Amino acid sequence: MKFPENFLWGGATAANQCEGGYNLDGKLPSVADHISKGDVNTPRTFTYDIDTDNFEYPSHEAIDFYHRYKEDIKLFAEMGFKVFRLSINWTRIFPKGDESEPNQAGLDFYRSVFEECKKYGIEPLVTLSHYETPIHLAKTYGGWTNRQVIDFFGHYARTVFNEYKDLVKYWLTFNEINILASQFGAIMGGGIIPEAGNSPIFNSDEESVASKNQRFQALHHQFLASANAVLDAKKINPEMQVGCMIAGNETYPLTCHPNDVLKAQQSIYEANFYCGDVQVRGEYPPFAKRMWQENDIELDIHAGDLELLKAGTVSFYTFSYYMSSTASTDPSQSASAGNMMFGIKNPYLESSDWGWQIDPVGLRVYLNEVYNRYRVPLMIVENGLGAHDEFAEDGKIHDSYRIDYMKQHIEQMKLAIADGVDLIGYTSWGCIDLVSASTGEMKKRYGFIYVDKDNEGYGTLDRSKKDSFDWYKEVIASNGEKL
Alpha-carbon torsion 10, 241, 411, 261, what sign? Predict the structure, then answer.
């Protein structure tokens, strides 16, 4: 039970949650820049028109990685990172999304970031789209519901592939692409926005058939865009590798009643394998037709689409994993929110400060399920514990709870490797504190590095190490032997 010698240890961020500088050097807003802060009791909302520049929209400043990236990457290097996952904010390269010529200042910024990584021997793992659809494309074209956006994304992808072909080897197309299979993904994942006013980004109300059809059509367009990106990357530099990224959902039956077992199985297939099959196998899964019929979904699939999906399959599979849930056909059971999903609480598991159930063994279950279905290298690119971090009397943060969470998950990774899973890397989510995607808070902290900023946007932005910083440094140095 050992990790491979070349295992890629590191951490992960997203531009809209850490970068800031949302209107600097030619950048225009993305959908994320129109989403308000929130908390566990107040849902984040999308605002059609923004006319303010404060922490009401936390992505505007975030943790100011835009100006502090050298300091942050130096800290990542001190921990021993082999890889750093980050995203390119599309609107830094093409501010509106449909321009013919890129914004040079944006190209220069990411070149500096990648060069800084290379200086320390850190491999960038770059996500092309992490909830950062240009707001112009959302307002003018209807976001990913419009087939034209495939071409705009293709132009963007080819531009950055050519620009960084000697600096970036590993690419991901769409972050947690499967959230579009859930109504929670419409705004953030698909750039499908309301025409005016405010709207909750996670809406649990009954959804119309038309809205559901929009989401799945947008998802089909993203599949095509991803396949094009895979083919373009191979042409530009055959050494580049392009992967998918799935929000990992592990669901157990609440009871051993056959109906609960069937419902849990359907949840796993629809949440994980609908998108995984298209991106890894190059085809919609057999259960897709039943799912479309039951939900009155009619996709507009053009001639050549299915052939493109078959040709543009990814070379590795990455995913986020934070928690698991259960499924039941008992109408008296109520579901609670988790990472972009709803599920029934498992009575055998403890929960985080935000109610996400902690299930390390579920990670091993998921790894085995996915690897035995796809047989391509896997990478965990998001995993971590969102928690309240407070300074002790000695002026330090003793986050033993985070260390314990990660230790248990890494132990299960070892067991999965012993099971035969080809696991090639692990990038913990929010290696430095950043804005929470689900609640828009700063106090929901994941990092090994504390950032002095509160929920109202106040603070010095100074960085300081938590106990988990030195712990993770030793984990990497020992290649997972010392936990």
Answer: positive
Confidence at residue 183, expressed as pLDDT on a 0 to 100 scale: 83
DSSP assignment string, 129-151: ESS--BHHHHHHH-GGGSTHHHH
- What DSSP letter does each residue of 398-424 carry, written as one string? --HHHHHHHHHHHHHHHHHHHTT--EE
pLDDT at 205: 74
* Cα→Cα distances 414→158, 406, 423, Å: 37, 12, 9
How far is 438 from 323, CA to CA, in rounded Å?
A: 14
**What confidence category does residue 55 fall into, taking pLDDT thresholds of 50, 70 and 90?**
confident
The pLDDT tens digits for 324-374 are 999 999 988 877 666 556 688 899 999 888 888 999 999 999 999 999 999
Sequence-ordered list of residues with C-beta below 8 angstroms from that of 69, at least 6 positions apart, any chain: 112, 113, 116
DSSP secondary structure, 210-239, as one string: HHHHHHHHHHHHHHHHHHHHHHHHHHH-TT
Report the phi/psi class of residue 301: left, alpha or beta, with left for phi > 0 and alpha for psi in -120 to 50. Answer: beta
Using an 8 Å Cβ cutoff, are 89 and 16 in contact?
yes
On the CB side of 153, how many CA atoms lie within 13 Å of its CA? Answer: 32
Could you give the CA distance from residue 364 to residue 22 in angstroms, rounded to a whole number?
Answer: 38
**Could you give the CA distance from residue 370 to residue 317 in angstroms, rounded to a whole number?**
9
Per-residue pLDDT of 441-458, as tens digits, reads 999 999 999 999 999 999
Whether 309 and 223 have beta carbons less than 8 Å apart is answered as yes
**What Cα–Cα distance (Å) separates residue 374 from each residue in 33, 57, 164, 296, 317?**
36, 39, 29, 29, 9
pLDDT for residue 384 is more than 60: yes
What are the domain boundaries of the chain? 8-477
Its pTM stands at 0.96
Residue with tokens 């012993």: 418
* Burial of 167 (C-beta count, 10 Å sphere; 0-12/13-18/19+): middle
Tokens of 224: 């095509």
Q: Strand 198-200 and strand 45-47: pairing?
A: antiparallel
Interatomic CA distance for residues 434 and 449, integer angstroms: 10
pLDDT at 354: 86
| CA distance from start to end of the chain | 13
CATH class of 8-477: alpha beta
**Residue with the larger pLDDT of the pair 172 and 194:** 172
Amino acid at 26: G
CB neighbour class for 175 (10 Å; exposed up to 12, middle 13-18, buried from 19): buried
For the annotated catalytic residues, the residue numbers are: 176, 382
